[in-house]
Design goal:
alpha+beta, Aminopeptidase, 7-stranded mixed β-sheet, 7 helices, 24% strand, binds coenzyme A
């Protein structure tokens, strides 16, 4: 019998493991190829650096972990309403990590994040992401378990959900959980979709 997957809050001491899962899980996403370049190792290193800085500077983050047999197999960042867009102080704290990516990649990251910021809804919303299942474990139901927990929390709290994605197969995945595309915009030539979820009426 396959080992059960536990879905729970990510503990602060698990953040380094979560950074690894997210960097490996998203290594080949089209947007990451466009932003970080053709070298897969560089994509891993760059994204790990960015995610580490994101967690370090976003104290409001409430990430959800999927754990199987004591191993972290999937994780998502969850920014509570009103916390997803960084103010000037948080941007400043992120800056060294962005600058360390090198000028060309830093410019691309800033272009990417400013496009996403433009589409960010004005209404209060819980912002999902980054979400990934470890690279060798995708397609086994882990991501769906994380999404079920996340959406149950949204429904319990009557909150609107929101996310961005750069893969058309993910659009279908998120639609299964009640998200709908509200906008589409290429980032560095890669299609990106913006998706919103209304809380289920209770
Ligand atoms: C998207 C992701 C979180 C889904 O989690 P998962 O555990 O692989 O998905 P599940 O097994 O629960 O559900 C499978 C569905 O996910 C979607 N999917 C997206 N990417 C997939 C992948 N790389 N492998 C398998 N399924 C994928 C498909 O719709 C699939 O449905 P199908 O089996 O009917 O084709 C995971 O595949 C992943 O980490 N992908 C790479 C990183 C990424 O794109 N993250 C989301 C950024 S917005």
């Amino acid at each position: 019998m396959p080992e059960a997957i536990e879905i729970r809050a990510l503990q602060p001491d698990e953040i380094p493991l979560a950074v690894g899962v997210l960097a490996r899980g998203m290594r080949d996403n089209p947007l990451h190829v466009a932003v970080y370049g053709a070298d897969p190792d560089r994509r891993l290193r760059c994204h790990a650096r960015l995610i580490r800085a994101l967690f370090r500077t976003s104290s409001a983050q409430r990430p959800i972990a999927a754990v199987r047999g004591g191993t972290l197999v999937g994780v998502t960042g969850v920014a509570p309403a009103g916390t997803c867009q960084p103010g000037p102080a948080r941007k400043l704290r992120m800056l060294p990590a962005v600058a360390a990516l090198g000028p060309r990649t830093a410019r691309r990251v800033l272009g990417w994040t400013s496009t996403w910021a433009k589409f960010d809804p004005d209404e209060p919303h819980v912002h999902l992401g980054p979400l990934a299942v470890d690279a060798h474990l995708q397609g086994q139901g882990v991501g769906s378990k994380i999404m079920r927990e996340h959406c149950a929390r949204l429904d319990d709290a009557h909150e609107v959900g929101y996310l961005e994605t750069d893969k058309v197969e993910n659009v279908g995945f998120y639609e299964r959980f009640g998200y709908w595309v509200t906008g589409e915009q290429p980032v560095l030539g890669v299609p990106n979709w913006f998706m919103r979820r209304e809380s289920a009426a209770r």
